[in-house]
Design brief:
The chain is α/β, with parallel strands linked by helices. Helix content is 56%, strand content 12%. The protein has a four-stranded mixed β-sheet with strand order 3-9-7-6, with no helix packed on it. A hairpin with a 5-residue loop joins strand 6 and strand 7.
């Protein structure tokens, strides 16, 4: 009983995503009559979405600003993740003044939601507003939490980001009237419907066309999934993952959640500082009462695996 393997689309870069569907289009065209007839009702939508993706792909490849903007966007995301992590950690401070300041800033930041999921223009508006809040009504809280350098770095990164967006305005006339997210979702939705039809017919053994098609496509899916798995760095490798020692924490009667400094080192390359929320998440164990607590770092995005370290909680 043959079925198409699930392809992890989320991790595919745009070029690999497009190349996969171009190849799929060719395979569908040359497939047996039974398979082509089974998915015929979906082919119009599939072709339309593929045409839109091709237009976006051509526009992206032509734009010399695309990668610059993407990197500037990633820098802003890293800074916002860092600020949010520090604010969250400050909520557990023993100082009431610090906790109050962190609570106020956290409420303000939550008003803007998940900025990393917004379009560049929407993100620019929200980040500009956040910086104005940091420099204005929340200036005292920024000072209290020691966020001044972070806010300054965010302002500098945002100025560069805005400059790149202004330069991109001259290219807007050539941009297709659709977003990458819309196109990817559209073509993936059609693909999943095709997969259901192909798998159902293969299981029912309605025609050898379906098993033959699966035999051709599955190796490509396996290769793409494996390429992503290999590209991820393993945080479980103690010779590569370095966690700075965690200071002894004070007992508060509530969960103690220190944020560690984590680096990933590869031979011949400078150590990369990992970003909480982007590169890793954290779980805690035995972190309420005095004694030895555990902190486990779980890889995310470009990182996989986990590494556990300990820290002490004492009552003074």
């Amino acid at each position: 009983m043959k079925k198409l393997i699930a392809l992890r689309f989320k991790q595919l870069p745009f070029s690999a995503h497009f190349d996969f569907f171009v190849k799929l289009s060719g395979l569908l065209t040359s497939a047996g009559d039974a398979l082509r007839n089974a998915v015929a009702a979906l082919m119009t939508d599939f072709s339309a979405w593929l045409t839109k993706e091709e237009s976006l792909m051509q526009w992206i490849r032509k734009s010399i600003l695309t990668e610059w903007i993407a990197e500037a966007d990633r820098q802003i995301d890293r800074l916002l993740v860092g600020i949010n992590a520090l604010v969250k950690a400050s909520l557990h401070s023993t100082s009431a003044t610090t906790r109050n300041a962190a609570h106020k800033i956290q409420i303000m930041l939550k008003q803007y939601g998940r900025i990393s999921r917004e379009s560049y223009d929407e993100e620019a508006g929200d980040v500009r507003a956040i910086i104005e809040q940091f420099d204005g009504p929340y200036a005292a809280e920024v000072t209290t939490l020691g966020l001044t350098n972070w806010v300054n770095d965010l302002s500098t990164a945002f100025e560069h980001f805005e400059d790149l967006l202004r330069r991109r305005e001259t290219e807007r006339s050539a941009k297709p009237p659709c977003t990458t997210r819309e196109v990817r979702k559209g073509i993936e939705d059609v693909y999943h419907q095709m997969v259901e039809i192909i798998n159902a017919n293969s299981v029912a053994n309605t025609s050898p066309d379906f098993a033959a098609f699966i035999d051709i496509l599955n190796p490509d899916i396996e290769r793409l999934n494996a390429e992503f798995a290999r590209s991820q760095k393993d945080l479980g490798r103690s010779d590569h993952t370095v966690v700075d020692p965690i200071d002894t924490q004070q007992y508060t009667g509530k969960p103690v959640t220190p944020l560690p400094l984590v680096h990933y080192r590869e031979e011949g390359k400078p150590a990369a500082e990992l970003i909480f929320g982007k590169d890793f998440t954290i779980t805690y164990r035995n972190n309420v009462h005095t004694g030895t607590a555990e902190l486990t770092i779980h890889g995310r995005g470009s990182y996989r695996g986990a590494k556990t370290v300990t820290f002490n909680i004492i009552e003074t």
